[in-house]
C-alpha cells in the first residue's frame, strides 16, 4: 500500500513534470513555480520519469498524453503498479473525450486540457488541481499520521505479529495474544517458550536460540497453544532476524492452522475409503502426469478393460497416449495440449471431454471411450496431475451403428417399395384398361407378369425383414443339397443356363436361409450375367482351398470394379431395367447372420465370383 510521500510541513509541493516538448515543459514548469510556488522537476519521457520515481519522492506527477514511445495512459498504468495512491494528473495538448474516458478508467487523479493559446489560464487551473489532489491524498505531504497508519495495520492484522528479544516477548498484537490465550500484561516480558504448549517449549527455545537465524532469512515451524476458553489450537509461525538500534530482534508472524491440520487429518483418514470407492466405480479412472501423460494410477475397472495391472504399470510406465488408437492419437494429444494451454492462460473450462478409440493390452479389438479430464492443482496453483474418467462407449456406439444400418434398410425398403411396386401396378392397371377397351386378351399376359414382379419384390422384402429378426435354426446342412434345391426354384425349361456343383462341405447352418442364399445368387446371375440370349450361362459352386469356405461364380459379364464396394447395399443393381436390388443385400445379411464373411471378385471367365469364408483367421469348423 502507498502511504503517500513524507516531506516537511513547510516544504513546497514536489511535482514531476513529464513532457517531450521542451518549450511547453519550460512554460508549464515556470507557471507552477510562479503561481503555485511548487518544486518542479522536468523530464522528457516516461522512462526517465520512472527512473526518477525509483530514486526520489514526489507529491504529484503531471504528464502529457502523447509520446513517441508510449502514451500517458500506459505511463499512468505503470506508475500505478508501484505507486497506487500517488496523485497523477494528465495535462495534455492532445486531449479528447476518448482520452479523458480512458484516463479515468486507468485511475487518473485528474484531467486538465492544456490550451496552447491560453497557457496562463491552463497553468492556473493545473495549480488548483495539483493542490487539491495532494490535499486529498491518503496522508498529508508532511507525513503526519504515518505511525498511526502503521499501528492500525499491525493491530488489526488477521495475522499474529510479534517481536522477540533474547527469547522474551517484547511486543504482540491482539491477534497473536488471542492465539496464545492470554492478555498483554501476562505475555509481554515473558519467555515466548513459556506461553506455548509444554510439548513445544523446547522447539521454541531451539528456534529462538543463538545462531538459528545467522544463515537463514526466515524459519517456519508449527507449535500448539491453548486459547482463553481452553480450546487447543495449532499455529504456524515464521520468524525473521532483524537488527533494531543495535539489538537483535526476531520479527514473527503466526497464523491459526488448526482447521487446516484437521482437514489434512480427515483427508488422510478418508483417503483409503476414497480409493476403495474409486476402485469400485464402473468407469475407468486414471491419474496421469501433466507433461508426458504417464499414468500413475488406475482403478480396478481400468485394469480389467485395459488388461494391465497397476503393479506392472509401475514397473513399466506407459504413456496414456500409447493406449489410444494410432489414428486418434495426434488429435487427442492436440486436445490435451490445448487444455494445458488454456489452464496456463487462465481461460480453461471446468473440464474437458474427448472421444477416441483405444486398443486394450494384448488385444486386437478396437473399443470406443469418452474421457473427461480435470486438472489438479497444488497450493501454488501449479498443475500436479490430471484426473481422468473414461467411459467405455463401445456397446453404445455399436448399437447406434446398428440402428443407423436399420434406418438405412428401412429407407431402402420404402424407396424400393414405392418405386418397384408402383411401377408394376401402373403397368398392370394400364394393360387391364386396354384389355377391357379392346378385348385383346394378350394384355392380360402383361398384367400377369406385373403381378409376378410385385410378388417377387414383396417376398424379397419380407425375406430380408424376417431374416433380420428371426432366430436361426442351426443344423448340419449339406451345401450341395441346398444349392440343388435352390436351382430347381430358379430355372425353367427355356432357360439357357447350366449349374456345375463341385464337392461341397457339410456345415452348421440354417437350412432355409442357405436355400434362400443360393436362390438369390442364382437369380442374380441369371438376371444380370446373360448378355446374349443364345449363349449358355454356366454357374459353378465349389469349395475354397483348405475348406475355409465356398464360392459361387459364373461366366457372364461380371460386376464392374466401380460397383463392388456398394453392390451388397440394399437397392443397388447393375441393371437399369427396374431391378429392385434386394437380392445381394439378402445374400450379405444371411452370410453375416451366420458369422461368416462374403467378398466379391472375378471368375477366370471374367464373370462374377462370390466367396464365402467360414473363418477369416483359421480353418473352418466344417464337416465333410
Automatic annotation (TrEMBL):
<dbReference type="InterPro" id="IPR036890">
    <property type="entry name" value="HATPase_C_sf"/>
</dbReference>
<dbReference type="InterPro" id="IPR000700">
    <property type="entry name" value="PAS-assoc_C"/>
</dbReference>
<dbReference type="Pfam" id="PF00072">
    <property type="entry name" value="Response_reg"/>
</dbReference>
<dbReference type="GO" id="GO:0006355">
    <property type="term" value="P:regulation of DNA-templated transcription"/>
</dbReference>
<feature type="domain" description="PAS">
    <location>
        <begin position="270"/>
        <end position="343"/>
    </location>
</feature>
<keyword id="KW-0597">Phosphoprotein</keyword>
<feature type="domain" description="PAC">
    <location>
        <begin position="352"/>
        <end position="405"/>
    </location>
</feature>
<feature type="domain" description="Response regulatory">
    <location>
        <begin position="14"/>
        <end position="129"/>
    </location>
</feature>
<dbReference type="Pfam" id="PF00989">
    <property type="entry name" value="PAS"/>
</dbReference>
<dbReference type="Pfam" id="PF02518">
    <property type="entry name" value="HATPase_c"/>
</dbReference>
<keyword id="KW-0808">Transferase</keyword>
<dbReference type="InterPro" id="IPR011006">
    <property type="entry name" value="CheY-like_superfamily"/>
</dbReference>
<dbReference type="Pfam" id="PF00512">
    <property type="entry name" value="HisKA"/>
</dbReference>
<feature type="domain" description="PAS">
    <location>
        <begin position="166"/>
        <end position="208"/>
    </location>
</feature>
<dbReference type="InterPro" id="IPR013767">
    <property type="entry name" value="PAS_fold"/>
</dbReference>
<dbReference type="InterPro" id="IPR003661">
    <property type="entry name" value="HisK_dim/P_dom"/>
</dbReference>
<dbReference type="InterPro" id="IPR003594">
    <property type="entry name" value="HATPase_dom"/>
</dbReference>
<feature type="domain" description="Histidine kinase">
    <location>
        <begin position="416"/>
        <end position="618"/>
    </location>
</feature>
<dbReference type="InterPro" id="IPR001789">
    <property type="entry name" value="Sig_transdc_resp-reg_receiver"/>
</dbReference>
<dbReference type="InterPro" id="IPR005467">
    <property type="entry name" value="His_kinase_dom"/>
</dbReference>
<dbReference type="GO" id="GO:0000155">
    <property type="term" value="F:phosphorelay sensor kinase activity"/>
</dbReference>
<dbReference type="InterPro" id="IPR013655">
    <property type="entry name" value="PAS_fold_3"/>
</dbReference>
<protein>
    <recommendedName>
        <fullName>histidine kinase</fullName>
        <ecNumber>2.7.13.3</ecNumber>
    </recommendedName>
</protein>
<dbReference type="InterPro" id="IPR035965">
    <property type="entry name" value="PAS-like_dom_sf"/>
</dbReference>
<dbReference type="InterPro" id="IPR052162">
    <property type="entry name" value="Sensor_kinase/Photoreceptor"/>
</dbReference>
<dbReference type="InterPro" id="IPR036097">
    <property type="entry name" value="HisK_dim/P_sf"/>
</dbReference>
<keyword id="KW-0418">Kinase</keyword>
<dbReference type="InterPro" id="IPR001610">
    <property type="entry name" value="PAC"/>
</dbReference>
<dbReference type="Pfam" id="PF08447">
    <property type="entry name" value="PAS_3"/>
</dbReference>
<dbReference type="InterPro" id="IPR000014">
    <property type="entry name" value="PAS"/>
</dbReference>
